Amino acid sequence: MIPFERSRPEGCPSDLRFDRLLAGELAPAEEQATRAHLDGCGRCAARFAALEAARAAFLADPPPLRLPAPPRTPAPAVRWSRARALVPAVTAALGAAAVLALVLRTRPPAGPTGDDRGARVAQAAQGTRTKGGDGRIGFYVARGEGAVPGGPGEVVHPGDRLQFTYAAAEAGYFALLSVDGARKASIYFPAGAAAAPIQAGEEVPLPSSVVLDETLGPETLYGLFCSAPVDLEPIRAALESAPERPPAPAGCRVDRLQIDKRAAP
Predict the structure, then answer these.
(1) Whole-prediction pTM value?
(2) 73 against 41, higher pLDDT
């Protein structure tokens, strides 16, 4: 972690200015002046290089999001309006952790309405996407100061941070792959060459989150629930060469989920 800047010589840019430079948020004249200063100030050049390296490290392996904790005691019965009649079925399928996540949603999602999203999450929770009916993937989207649950067809934006979760009835091995709008296949999890061991559980968060890049269009996610630590690079290469044919390695169940990456409004 880069320590917070305590003091700087007069005339040197602040860390906030450097952060805005890295994010491309400075006006052209401000950017030109800042880069000119970096060319002539060794202290600031070193500081900027450290901030740039820290940003790159974060994007390469961002930490997991802080997801809402499950309630310690059962929630009291609630009378839902007719417009929310779908929610009890959703919460029964998702379990206590997802119940709290739905109730504590920090703000309405961009794109589909809350009821539409509830229907999508309910469908996912019932396992209808999963080959073999066991093992499914899910995710949360960091927006503002909180995280909201996502679902099939979720509209997301470049720079959004996603925390993926899995649900599995038994221990095994797991990997998460994607194909983006440019038909490029990537391995989101794990960092190693083979599927990683997992324990059984519901809505279990992966140990790191993902920051979305600038590629727009539909992105398809594949969760592989396997009985052995399968080699992932051949699967990734085959998926990239033929995205229309989902991976189906021997001994693995595959859950597929699609999101829609659009430019930020």
Answers:
(1) 0.54
(2) 41
